[in-house]
Design goal:
2 domains, Heat Shock Protein 90, globular, 10 strands, alpha+beta, about 20% strand
C-alpha cells in the first residue's frame, strides 16, 4: 500500500459536524454500538457486491468468499474492521463520509429525542452508523477500493472529527474497505480481543457473512466468531431470543423490538 497523491483536505458538511458533536458528547453511554454499526455496514457492502456480481462476476476478482475481519491491537490501541465487499471510489468516500448528507444525516438530526437509548437505536435506521466510530476513536482512517477498479484507484480517508477530513489516492491490492480506529485514551478496552469477541456475539451473531478474528494474539490463523449462518437455516432450538431481535433490527432498521416472530427452517 502506497500513497499515490498528496492528501487533499476538505471540510465536513454542516450537518455532519453537528452529528459528530452529538455522537461524541451525547451517546457516550452507548459507545459499544460503534462495532455493531461498522459490522452492519461491512455486511451491507458484501451483500451489495454479491448482488452486483450476479450480472458481473468479474467484480469478484477471483475471490468469491465474502468475509469481515476484525483485528484488535492492544499495543497500538487500534481496532480494524475489514471487508472484501463492494468498496468505494474516491468520490464516493468524499460523498458518503464527509460532504454530502446522502446517508440521511439531516433527517436523523430532526428525529432525535434527547433520550440517549432511543437516539442510539436510530443510528442504523438513518445510515449514519459510521460516525459512531468517533465515540471511541480520536482518529479514524478508511482505506477503500471499489470492486472492478485497478489497484491504483484506492482511496485513503482520514479524520480527527475536528471539522475536516483528508483524502488521498492510494494503491490497494485488494478490493473492499478497511476502517482503522485509533482509540482514545480511556477506550483501550476495545483493543482487547475478548471484549471485541463478546460484542460480536452480542450484536452481530446473526450476520450472514463470517466475522473472523485471530485465534490468539500471536496466531496468524483466523477463525469465525459468529454463527455466519442465516437464522432460517438453523434449528429453532439453536436460536436465542436476542438473535431474533437483532436480526429484525438489522433487516428493518427499526430498533424497537418485534411484536412476534415465527421460525420455519429452510
Amino acid at each position: 500500500m502506497s500513497e499515490a497523491s498528496a492528501a487533499q483536505t476538505m471540510g465536513f458538511q454542516a450537518e455532519v459536524k453537528q452529528l459528530l458533536k452529538l455522537m461524541i458528547h451525547s451517546l457516550y453511554s452507548h459507545k459499544e454500538i460503534f462495532l455493531r454499526e461498522l459490522i452492519s455496514n461491512a455486511s451491507d457492502a458484501c451483500d451489495k457486491l454479491r448482488f452486483e456480481a450476479l450480472a458481473k462476476p468479474e467484480l469478484l476478482e477471483g475471490g468469491g468468499d465474502l468475509t469481515i475481519t476484525i483485528d484488535a491491537d492492544s499495543q497500538a490501541h487500534t481496532v480494524t474492521i475489514t471487508d472484501n465487499g463492494i468498496g468505494m471510489t474516491r468520490q464516493e468516500a468524499i460523498e458518503h463520509l464527509g460532504t454530502i448528507a446522502k446517508s440521511g444525516t439531516a433527517e436523523f438530526l430532526t428525529k432525535l429525542t434527547g433520550d440517549q437509548k432511543k437516539d442510539a437505536q436510530l443510528i442504523g435506521q438513518f445510515g449514519v452508523g459510521f460516525y459512531s466510530s468517533f465515540i471511541v476513536a480520536d482518529r479514524v482512517e478508511v482505506f477503500s477500493r471499489k470492486a472492478g477498479e485497478p489497484a491504483t484507484a484506492g482511496v485513503h480517508w482520514s479524520s480527527r472529527a475536528d471539522g475536516e477530513f483528508t483524502v488521498a489516492d492510494v494503491e490497494l491490492p485488494d478490493r473492499g474497505t478497511k476502517i482503522v480506529l485509533h482509540l482514545k485514551e480511556g477506550e483501550h478496552e476495545f483493543s482487547d480481543d475478548y471484549r471485541i469477541r463478546a460484542l460480536v456475539r452480542k450484536y452481530s451473531d446473526h450476520i450472514a457473512f463470517p466475522v473472523r478474528m485471530r485465534k490468539s494474539k500471536k496466531d496468524t490463523e483466523y477463525e469465525t466468531v459468529n454463527h455466519a449462518q442465516a437464522l432460517w437455516t438453523r434449528s429453532r432450538t439453536e436460536v436465542k431470543e436476542e438473535e431474533y431481535k437483532e436480526f429484525y433490527r438489522h433487516i428493518s432498521h427499526d430498533f424497537n423490538e418485534p411484536l412476534a416472530w415465527s421460525h420455519g427452517k429452510v
